[in-house]
Amino acid sequence: MTAIVVGLNLALCFAGLSALALSLDRHHRDAFLVRPGAARARTLRIAGWSGIGLSFVAAVALEGWNFGPVQWIGALTGAALLVVAFLSYRPGWLRPAALLALPIALVALPLALNG
Amino acid sequence: MRQGFRQSMAWLHAWSGLVVGWVLFCVFVTGTASYYRTEISQWMRPELAETASDPARSADLAAAYLQRAMPDATGWYIELPKPEKPLIGVMWWKSLEGPFHQALLDPATGTPTKARDTRGGDFLYRFHFELGMPPLWGRWIVGTCALVMLVALVSGIVTHRRIFADFFTFRRRRSQRGWLDAHNVFGVLALPFHLMITYTGLVTLAPMYMPWGVVSAYKGDEMRFYVDSGLMPELRAPSGKPGTLAPLSGMVAQGIAARGEAPEGVSVFNPADATPSVLAVFEEPHGLAHEHPQIAFDGATGAMLGSNGATRAAAKTSTVMLGLHEGHFAGAALRVLFFLCGVMGAATVATGLVLWAVARAPQGAEAEGFGLRLVRTLNVGTIVGLPAGIAAYFLANRLLPLDLAARADWEVGTFFGAWALVAVAGALRPAESVWREGLGLVGGLFLAVPVVGALTTGLHPLAGETRFLGFDAAMIALGILLGLAARKAGQARLRPALRADAGITGGEALRA
C-alpha cells in the first residue's frame, strides 16, 4: 500500500536527514552543546546519506520508476521540515526521534512488501 | 553588472520576487487548496450524500435537458455523476467564443438539483489560474507571473550562498535573520516541488501562450494536431443540415463494454446537425500522465468511430507534466505531502514579501517612504486578505439563505468583499499591530467555519455525521496555525531594539 511506503520513506528520510543535520557544527552544538569530532561528523554523514539512499532504493523498488522518485522527493521534503522543526524548538529530541524512526522503518518494510 | 554576479542576482531576485509576489501568493494558496477540490465541493453541498447513479440513464436525462435548454447549441459537455459528486454537470454553448452556459442536474430526475447553489471547490480551482478575471486575461497574467517566478527561483538559488551549510538553519529568535532563514528553509526544502510546479504549470498553458508552431503547421485545422498527437480521436465535420441525435445511453453502454468502466464525461459536437459526433471521455488510468482515453461515436447512428491513438514522446512528455502538476495520481498520504509543499510555496512567497519590507525598514527617526508603505499595505492586504476571503467564502456557503437568487454569485461576492474589507482595514491600522490583529482575525474566521457548519446543518460528528471530519480538522488546524502566527507577530512587536537584535542590515540580508 502506498501510504505505508510513504511512511517508510518518511521514516528513512527523517533518520538520514537528522544524521546529516547533526554532522554540521551548528546543529551538533544545538543538540549536544559541543562540536562533533571529525570522525563523528564523518560517521554521521555516511549514516545520513545511507538513509537517504536507502529510502530512494525502497521507493523505486516498491513503487517503480514512475511513482518512486516523485514519492521519494515528497517524503524528503516532509522529513526535512520535521528536522527543522525539531532543531528550532526541541533540538535535544532530534537524536531520540531519529533513532525511533529506524524501528518504525523496520516495521513498515515487511508491511509494505506484503501490501 | 552591479558589483558582481551574485549581487546582481540578489537584486534580480528581490525585485522579480516583489513584482509578482502578490499574484504568486494567491496562485499558490488557491492551487494548494485545489488538491482537495472534490472534498471542498462535497463540504459545500452538504445535502448530497455519496450515492451511485446509472451513467447511461444520466446521459439521456442530460441530453433531454440540453435539447430543451438550447435547441441550436453547437456543443455540449456532460459530466456524468460519481459517488462523491452525485450530480450531472452540463455545459452548452452556441459558439466556442462563448458564452458558455452550465447547470447541475439531479441524476434521479434530470431537473436542476435542489442542493444549494454554489461553485464549491471549482471556484478556488479556477481562481488558481484565472484569478477570477475573464479567462484569457487571468491566464496571461498567471503565466507571466509564473515565468518571473522561474527567474526568481533560479536567481534565488544563485543568491543563496550556503544552501547546504544552512540547509536546516532556522534562527527563529532573531527578527530579520529569522525571516530570511524561514524564507530559505521553505524555499530550499521544497525546491524540487517549487521548480516542478512552476515549470509544469507553464507547460500546461503553453499551447495558449505559444500557439504559433501548431498554427503555422496546421493552418486553420488545429484540431488535427490533437488527433495526430494521439490526444483525441478523429471527429466528423458538421454537414450543415439538421438531424437528430441517437440516444446517448447506447453509446455510453458501448463505452462501458469496451473499457470496463463508465466514462467520466460525454462531449457532443453539433448535436442538432445531421452528422453529430459524440466523444466518451474516460478517467485517466493510474499513471503519472494526464491522458484521458476517449472513444468517438457517430452521433446519428450511435456507431463507434474509433479511439485516440497512443501518445508518442513529445505529447507524452506534456501529459506527464500536466499529470505531475495536478497530482491526481497521488493517494491520500502523498497528497498530504503535496499539500504541505504547496503551503511551503505560499510561505516562501509570503516570507519573501515580508523580508523585502523588513530589510528596507527606515532606521531610527527616518520617515517611511511611499514605496515601502505601499509594499507593506499590499503585503497585509494579500497575505491576510486572501485567507480571510476564503474563510468568508466557506462561511457564506453556510450562512446565506438557501433560496437566495444567484446564491453562488453572492458566495463569490462575499469572498472578494471580505478580502477587500480586510485589505482596506489593514491599510488603516498602525504597522506595529496590523499583523497580530489581521492574523488573529483570520484564524478566528477559520475556527468559526466548523462551528457554523455544525450549527446550520446539524451535520457534525456528535450527530453521527463523519463525512466532514477531515475538512473540519483542516479548518481547525489552519485556525490554530494562524492564531500562533498572530501571537508570534504580537511578541515581535514587544521585543525592543529589533534591528540591533537582527544584527544585519538590509543589504546584508539580501547578500546572505
Task: Name the descriptors.
heterodimer; A: 115 residues; mainly alpha; B: 512 residues; alpha+beta; 7-stranded antiparallel beta sheet; 7 strands; disordered C terminus
Main β-sheet of chain B: number of strands, strand sense, barrel status?
A: 7 strands, antiparallel
Determine the strand fraction of chain A and express it as a percent band. under 5%
Number of domains of chain B: 2
Structural class of chain B: alpha+beta
What's the story with the biggest beta sheet of chain A?
A: none
Number of helices of chain B: 20
Give a description of the structure:
The complex is a heterodimer of chains A (115) and B (512). With 115 residues, chain A is mainly alpha-helical. Chain A has helices at 2-22, 25-32, 38-89, 94-114. In chain A, helix 1 (2-22) crosses helix 3 and helix 1 (2-22) runs antiparallel to helix 4 (94-114). The longest helix of chain A is centred in the middle third of the chain and has 52 residues, at 38-89. Chain A starts with a helix and ends with a helix. With 512 residues, chain B is an alpha+beta fold. Chain B is 59% helix and 7% strand. Chain B has 20 helices and seven strands. Chain B has helices at 5-34, 37-44, 55-69, 120-130, 135-159, 175-189, 191-204, 206-209, 212-218, 223-228, 248-259, 313-326, 332-359, 370-383, 385-399, 407-428, 431-457, 469-494, 498-502, 506-511, and strands spanning 75-79, 88-93, 100-105, 265-269, 277-281, 294-298, 304-307. A seven-stranded antiparallel sheet of chain B has the order 3-2-1-4-5-6-7, with helices on one face. The radius of gyration of chain B is 26 Å and the shape is globular. Chain B starts with a helix and ends with a helix. Chains A and B meet through helix 1 and helix 3 of A and helix 13 of B.
